[in-house]
Design goal:
With 455 residues, this protein is an alpha/beta fold. It is built from 16 helices and 19 strands. Helices cover 41% and strands 19% of the residues.
């Protein structure tokens, strides 16, 4: 965990600083534009949910190199003293355009573009990619879970198996903006205002002489509506014990809100438990299921008709287990006003600062995206821009509240073609280049090939 602000500056790859040092010694510090995008989507993903922008901007505003940081760099023997001393006054003072968090994006589309001096913009690379990569992964997987179980309450349970406490905070925030209803992470609840939820562990049940006594003990000490974990010994017996406690609570004017299943055949068990509860007149008591679930399991459970009202999603969400990484990159696209690109096979880049336009069909779904040059006019009245200015001269512009980001994602989801969200056979969303961008791309490609390859 980063403990002092100057550690943000050191939270980078060495080559960002060695390049910056070389630029400094050579007196190269013109204005550059870098574009962050995902080269291609893995087969398991048909879209991405933009996330992590708030963290990225906060990091950019925090980059500094205090005396301890500078002395460490000096100790490596890889930097000249003049460059190290120049870092004493380093601050990021550039501009950033970005797709707002919660919006849906596709391969090749810039999620974020940085404009600033080449030294500042280069040093920003690792910090920015790191901020957006994991958050976008988790937000996307969370969105897929939401679409796999429409109308169900989903709670993020992943803190104990995320890579760090910081990662746990990111996972909670990213899943909430993508439609989850809460988290088990208490710090995330305090920091972001996300509703927190939780019951007890099996260890709580085990220390009492009997399961029924454990249920009674928890119900007597917990002030709110009670959820009971019923699968410690035998799930169906646990359900019957829960019925006893539910009736005792009702006599006190309180209620059993739900029972939780964490193991076994969730389809069969949830149906049997539902029968036990309904027979006892407890049709208002819900069933919460957890235990290594993700969107694939939710799809299966929903199709089976399992009477489960809510799900706890943990490890596979917090690790994005099926797709633990995506090819997110940050590439130079303009320097000193001139377009720049690379021609590496499979890794070519689009030149210049850009805008992504999204076309709507009236009140119907979005139709397609168009990647264009930043200064191109709108293609028409039925198009809206995705990238917005979010930082000017090193200062972040006001950001929306998390609740607003969450609403934005819900609206975006509702306006996308339904077949985009099929987990088995998604239909790709149309993304194309404007004529002007294609022309500049081709002209720059020809110039580079002539200069570097003699073509």
């Amino acid at each position: 965990m980063v403990e002092r602000s100057s550690e943000i500056g050191l939270s980078t790859d060495l080559y960002q600083l060695t390049m910056a040092a070389s630029y400094f010694q050579l007196g190269i510090d013109g204005q550059a534009v870098f574009s962050l995008f995902v080269r291609g989507l893995p087969p398991e993903r048909s879209y991405l949910v933009a996330a992590g922008l708030d963290d990225a901007l906060n990091r950019l505003m925090s980059i500094s190199f205090d005396s301890d940081a500078r002395e460490y760099l000096r100790s490596t023997g890889q930097f000249r003293d003049e460059f190290i001393e120049s870092l004493k006054s380093f601050r990021f003072s550039g501009d950033v355009w970005a797709v707002p968090e919660g919006r849906i994006v596709f391969a090749g589309e810039p999620l974020l573009e940085v404009r600033g001096s080449i030294i500042e913009a280069q040093i920003a690379e690792t910090i920015v990619v790191n901020a957006l990569h994991y958050a976008t992964l988790v937000a996307t997987k969370a969105s897929r879970c939401v679409m796999a179980a429409p109308g169900k309450s989903l709670v993020e349970f992943g803190l104990r198996r995320t890579a760090s406490v910081d990662a746990g905070l990111i996972a909670a925030r990213s899943s909430y903006l993508a439609g989850f209803s809460g988290t088990s992470n208490v710090l995330a609840g305090e920091r972001y205002g996300i509703p927190v939820a939780g019951t007890v562990a099996h260890s709580f049940i085990e220390i009492f002489p009997s399961e029924l006594e454990a249920f009674r003990a928890f119900a007597s000490t917990y002030p709110g509506d009670v959820t009971l974990l019923i699968d410690t010994y035998d799930t169906l017996r646990g359900a019957r014990n829960a019925v006893i406690v539910a009736k005792e609570l009702a006599a006190q004017g309180r209620r059993l809100a739900s029972v939780r299943l964490d193991s076994g055949d969730l389809v069969a068990l949830s149906k049997q438990v539902r029968g036990i509860l309904d027979e006892a007149g407890l049709s208002n008591v819900g069933i919460l299921a957890s235990g290594g679930l993700d969107e694939s399991d939710l799809t299966t459970l929903e199709r089976s008709g399992a009477p489960i009202n809510a799900f706890g999603i943990g490890t596979r969400l917090g690790t994005s287990a099926d797709v633990p990484s995506i090819d997110m990159v940050y590439k130079l696209v303009q320097y000193a006003g001139e377009p720049k690109l690379k021609l590496s096979e499979g890794k070519a880049t689009l030149v210049g600062p850009k805008q992504v336009w999204r076309q709507s069909s009236g009140d119907g779904p979005f139709v397609r995206d168009l990647i264009a040059c930043r200064d191109e006019p709108s293609p028409g009245s039925d198009w809206e821009p995705l990238l917005e200015p979010v930082m000017q001269q090193g200062r972040a512009l006001p950001m929306p509240a998390l609740a607003e980001i969450r609403d934005r994602h819900r609206t975006e989801y509702e306006r996308m073609p339904a077949n985009l969200f099929s987990l088995e056979h998604p239909v790709a969303f149309s993304v194309s280049l404007s004529d002007e961008l294609q022309a500049i791309q081709q002209r720059t490609t020809d110039e580079v090939r002539a200069r570097e390859l003699g073509e």
